[in-house]
Amino acid sequence: TEYGGLGWGPQQAAIxxxxxxxAGAPWLIPFGVTMVGPVIYTFGSDAQKQRFLPDIVRNxxxxxxxxxEPGSGSDLASLKTRAVRGEDSDGAHYIVNGQKTWxxxxxxxxxxxxxxxxDPDAAKPQQGISFLLIDMKxxxxxxxxxxxxxxxxALNSVVFEDVRVPQAxxxxxxxxxxxxxxYLLGHERxxxxxxxxxxxxxxxxxxxxxxxxxxxxxxxVEKLSSLEARLDxxxxxxxxxxxxxxxxxxxxxxxxxxxxxATELAQDITExxxxxxxxxxxxxxxxSVAPAWTGNTALPSGAAPAVASYLGxxxxxxxxxxxxxQKNIIAKRILGL
Length: 337
What we know:
The protein is of the alpha+beta class.
């Protein structure tokens, strides 16, 4: 609350997300409030808190995430974007060179929170990484679009060429960026649930299925019922994961469990949505019109968006740390294997 938060517990926050999702309200872009905000108020300096947190709360300052690189995705500790210390009449700074990829909404961002290698000779690769806050208007930054299979421009490649970043923009200690990154990822992975949005998708699938008489098909009904039960379980898992936050902690390793079940469920829901439309399904970018719709309430206009949702959901089990990596985390940190 001292930094502008409402002081909500996990139940209140879950209710807010559920009701805004039901209402179709704009979703809160997570990079500021959910991701870098908690890192700044937990590990940042007083000056960083005063500079960044008010604008994050008001959504005046948009952020993007600079983690993955062309050769460092799930194996993030192998990242090679380099930050070299320097000092001149303008003060202490880093010179950053390298490239980040899969940078969501980077074309709109004012700042990027970025993992960079400050010590290439560290005993372990995780120990040589620092966490920088970089103004996207700094000379030397180039944003290149990546168009995904659903036709959207949400992702980007960000290139850094001799980008000057004040050392005052480093979060915490040099070389401790891996610790701050894992803290942030715990918060990020709790943001994937989108329970209310998934309920709306399933409600639409029910509507389409009713129009097409699919409730006469026991196999389809079984799939739909199973997804609804899994969604109930996801909602309970979200509340269980966030209970540690209510006690003053942070999402722990159990957020990896949440990430797996939320993203796999998202993929399965969009796949059943495609199945429900059946012969009425349309390409995300149709060159021709699908067969005429005969129903009265389920609209054919949902067919093309259903394809886009299906294609977009393919990436969910990859970003934020692939689900295979999450299973390794569960095995090592939770089960002790």
